[in-house]
Amino acid sequence: xxxxxRGAATGDGAGPPAPERxxxxxxxxxSEIKNKQRRHFMFLRWKQQQRKEKLAxxxxxxxxxxxxxxxxxxxxxxxxxENQRVxxxxxxxxxxxxxxxxxxxxxxxxxxxxxxxxxxxxTTSDRPRxxxxxxxxxxxxxxxxxxxxxxxxxxxxxxxxxxxxxxFTDLIVINEDRKIPNGLVLSHLPDGPTAHFRMSSVRLRKxxxxxxxxxxxxxxxxxxxxxxxxxxxxxxRMFAALFPHDxxxxxxxxxxxxxxxxxxxFRFHRYIFKSEKKVGIQELGPRFTLKLRSLQKGTFDSKYxxxxxxxxxxxxxxxxxxxHL
Length: 325
Description:
This protein has helices at residues 2-10, 36-68, 97-105, 109-112, 130-142, 156-165, 230-240, 313-316; strands at 120-124, 146-149, 170-177, 180-188, 194-203, 221-225, 253-260, 263-273, 279-283, 287-296, 307-310. It is an alpha+beta fold. The protein folds into two domains: 30-67; 93-317, 3-Layer(aba) Sandwich (Rossmann fold).
């Protein structure tokens, strides 16, 4: 009897097989594991199991759709922060006569009416470091007819009248902190407005993987994507006014300002048509990300300037689904 009991316990006999051990029960929590290495290992196992279950469900749904054919229900649109965005009253309607009138009489109207040619001055904060200097030089190769000036102790209020006297249409100031570029001021001349951005994720050309050759002097094409509100239109028109009207398509270069969740991503690419349906692109650099902090009327005046819009985090960032551009 003892032998039979041992046989049943070990599964050597004809007894029922032992049930499969469940790796992760429903109430499993990785945080309950005290050992750090074991906790990390189990977390990776759990993530792997989640991916397998998701892939299996995806394959099952695809087979069901293939079996149903034309009778298959339409694919469900995944919920994202973008398509769940809170409606903004200032969203621009392309057929709005009031918006068309305002844009025909604003500070950028001379540029869009081809009465002025963009001429840009790029400068820095006082006594810039090497990384900021290289970034300004590379930015000057992206924006045609731009000039780099390194100021030493000269106030912006003294620079702006000199820029206007020399027919500059825009002033770009790159600020830095601890030798890293962290801010950008864009002022449209001679009457403004002036935008102040926080800059992050700056990558120079040598830091970009699989980058293309040096950009040529051809005038690039410009893409402004997802600037939908009145404020977004103003910012988009500021960026557009930096580039000449007629791009040189033979250069196959394109500068992109893509707005997503109020972050403006800048990329500079060269493209090539491999066939009628396939296009290859190479990033040329530099790349950076901007976040609007304020929009000021007129030229730069930090003391007496009148602000059209200021980003106030505690009041404006109450919802993740609310955007301003």
